[in-house]
Amino acid sequence: MVDKQLPSVILRAVEPEDLDYMYVIENDRDIWKVGNTNMPYSRFALHEYIANSTGDIYTDKQLRLIITNQEQAFIGILDLCNFNPQHQRAEVGIVVRHEYREQGYGKAAMLRLMNYAHAVLHIHQLFALVSVDNAWCIRLFESVGFVRDAELKDWLFDGDKYDNVYLMHFFCKKIGKNLVE
Length: 181
Prior knowledge:
Layout: E1 9-13, H1 19-26, H2 29-32, H3 43-52, H4 57-60, E2 63-69, E3 74-84, E4 89-96, H5 105-119, E5 125-131, H6 135-143, E6 147-157, E7 162-171
Parallel strand pairs: 4-5
Antiparallel strand pairs: 1-2, 2-3, 3-4, 5-7, 6-7
């Protein structure tokens, strides 16, 4: 599954310097309609999240990682959330800044995350809930091996209408060798 043509990415912990980027992403109403957020976040709330996050998925039941390139440019955010240690599964969410989309950064970050989830966190299954209208995200998840399991009807409400989502999954045992070097 390694693609030598993908850009090199780094997944790192959230730092205080990421506050401005997180503020923009968390308050982007276009993203709200494809996720579970429906209210703006204050800088203070995000500052407190950064300050209080342990970075330990077993403690926080989630893990937020910043995607950067080799020059340390902020590419986006990857989330592992709804972590269930008993069943060894977690939900995946990804946001790639508009100017870095369609360049392979999302795929490179997902492959790196999948490898980390398997090799370090010992997660058995990753899943995502993806709006049926989010073609970019569907292509991304399918390109790294996720499959569509079901279409959940009227799952997301954007304030005007309900949208369906695909439940997509990936079994980490399919990884075998590391996905990325």
